[in-house]
């Protein structure tokens, strides 16, 4: 069986279990359609429903839908309108077409006519802000129990999904190297962003999220994307968090560079060591929360060794000091979505795992299992809004912190496939290692 055949069989089995457990026998998954801006006739970039691309790698055919009834072959209604204003995305002949019944439609009414009474018995999953979708009579719209069941099981990736993420990481790593070279050549943030896109012949809307392209102090702004058009007089540091998509699957990679050797280059090396040390702790059975805390302790050790904060790693963590420098979560599931779903689900019945108020931004609390894919992305930044809470505290070496501020901060982010017994795969490092100029 090919890996895609195995994938679609798994998706089908997961839908069978989810539909049966939640009282449905069929589902209509709508691909979605572009939203038009307020008082305007221009559409925002279209993003396909992730549960649509879970079945088939068709990303740019809005108004399409998949009808699936338990135990039957899925029916794909591929929307190809007669429209002389717009080009239509080509849908190449691919393996998925052998596994579905393909019905090409040029009007949505042709799908509802084909479905007839079946529509009223189906659960609907998708966006329904537009007509005629908003008026379709279905059994239920986006039932939470069905969605929770599907989201819980999506955490375990099929081998086809992992192959796609390997390819996405290779694309993103290629673009990262072009961005790195542009930084060392003295480019502005906007020029670096363009170098990234050009390296993989992508447009901005084809990336999974807004790239973070940050020189100097901007590295401390966690989601910085206001690219400056002029290069600063001195570009001391560069933090880039940028990804790529392959067949609808995401890469999410961060790297940080220092222009010169010295204090900031040493800090990057120490954070890289802390991230690598954590990777060796990942194995089935441990909770992701434990990994997050363990990473805090390693960052607390770096804070102590570099003289930013006084005390042992434990005391720096226990007093909440490390959270002022590392405020975000260790990482998140990744797959069809960059922040893939289900990180808080305790089971497929929709129960959730209680969050720890000490770590409000941690998106993943599940136990680690073989087949999961998640990011590991420790950071250390000078975020003045967070440091204000510690003003006047002599455990903090404010002079040393002032020395770091002009560099922004450090983040290093890889995506990890969990293997049995800690036999993990680092999709990101493997991708960089496969490129000649890494
Ligand atoms: N690039 C978004 C994140 O790292 O979560
Ligand atoms: Mn991430
Ligand atoms: Mn990222």
UniProtKB/TrEMBL annotation:
Listed GO MF terms: aminopeptidase activity; metal ion binding; metalloexopeptidase activity; phosphoric triester hydrolase activity; proline dipeptidase activity
Catalytic activity: Xaa-L-Pro dipeptide + H2O = an L-alpha-amino acid + L-proline
Note describing how the cofactor binds: Binds 2 manganese ions per subunit.
GO process terms (BP): proteolysis
A GO CC annotation given for this chain: cytosol
Cofactor: Mn(2+)
Record: residues binding Mn(2+) 1: 252, 332, 377, 413
Protein name: Xaa-Pro dipeptidase
Domain Peptidase M24: 163-420
PROSITE patterns on file: PROLINE_PEPTIDASE
Keywords, ordered alphabetically: Dipeptidase, Hydrolase, Manganese, Metal-binding, Metalloprotease, Protease
Function of the protein: Splits dipeptides with a prolyl residue in the C-terminal position.
Keyword Manganese: yes
EC number: 3.4.13.9
Sequence positions that bind Mn(2+) 2: 241, 252, 413
